[in-house]
Amino acid sequence: MRGVAWSDTNHDFNAYNSAGQIWNGSAYVTEDVADYLTYRIAATKTSNANSASLQAVFIADAPAGTAYYLMRVRGASLADSYVVWSESLVTEQIKAKTDLIGSGALLISAPVSGDGDLLELILETDYLAANGRALEWTFDEITGITTSATGKFGLKDALTGTEVYVNTTGTVTDLGSGTFKVSFDITNAALNALSPGKYDWSVEVLEGSYKITVARNRQIKTRVDIVEKQT
Predict the structure, then answer these.
(1) Which of 8, 12, 92, 124 is 20 to 30 A off residue 143, Cα-Cα?
(2) pLDDT (0 to 100) of residue 110
């Protein structure tokens, strides 16, 4: 099974069980940032070392059963590492299917980059968690924001400032160690009314009376390009 990140930086996988414990290579344990190195399932570059295309492969180190996997850009510590992909996977089901064909791969190219940037959305394209393609942002724990919060993602025309798309069905997940994730599913039909061009975007989390912006393009100074598909 492979995850693909368009970066020449080092990456690692981490696996969590339903109780939030992390895999240390032989068992699930309570996460301790001091033991960060023991939790890493190292990602191996299989392409040229200078290439921006990274294929991270892990099989032997993967725990059995359902696991919540994260792929992180490697930092000096767990706190300095950041998530670029996540998905819940059942190892046995994957193995049963890939055994039928002799080999197999799950290819992930996250629409949102590791630093939270959103560069491009393609018309007539699904961005769904089921395909490992949901729009996802991580953020530090915020007082008053729990997994009961709702995510809101919006697009505005960069020229007119007119709001053209809003998704208010984002889900918030606690990733542990003071990190949360907000995730949005966008179907291929949802963006089709938009014209190709540049758009401002923002991401909020809402719970009770709290409305907190956790990401926006002006922080990163990059508007998203809405482009036509090539096929």
Answers:
(1) 12
(2) 63
Judge whether 180 and 143 are in contact, CB under 8 Å.
no
pLDDT, average across residues 193-220: 89
Amino acid identity at 33? V
Residue 19's contacts (CB-CB under 8 Å, 6 or more residues apart) are 28
pLDDT at 74 over 70: yes
Paired residues of 180 in beta bridges: 139, 174
The pairing of strands 135-140 and 120-122 is unpaired
Residue-range domain boundaries for the chain: 2-101, 120-227
Amino acid at 106: L
Q: What span, in angstroms and rounded, lies between the C-alpha atoms of 149 and 160? A: 30
Strands (E) located in the chain:
2-6, 11-16, 22-23, 28-29, 41-42, 53-57, 66-73, 82-90, 120-122, 135-140, 150-157, 163-176, 179-184, 197-207, 210-216, 224-227
CA-derived radius of gyration, the chain: 18
The CATH homologous superfamily to which domain 120-227 belongs is Immunoglobulins (2.60.40.10)
Nearest to 175 by CA among 7, 31, 25: 31
Residue 99 has pLDDT above 60, yes or no: no
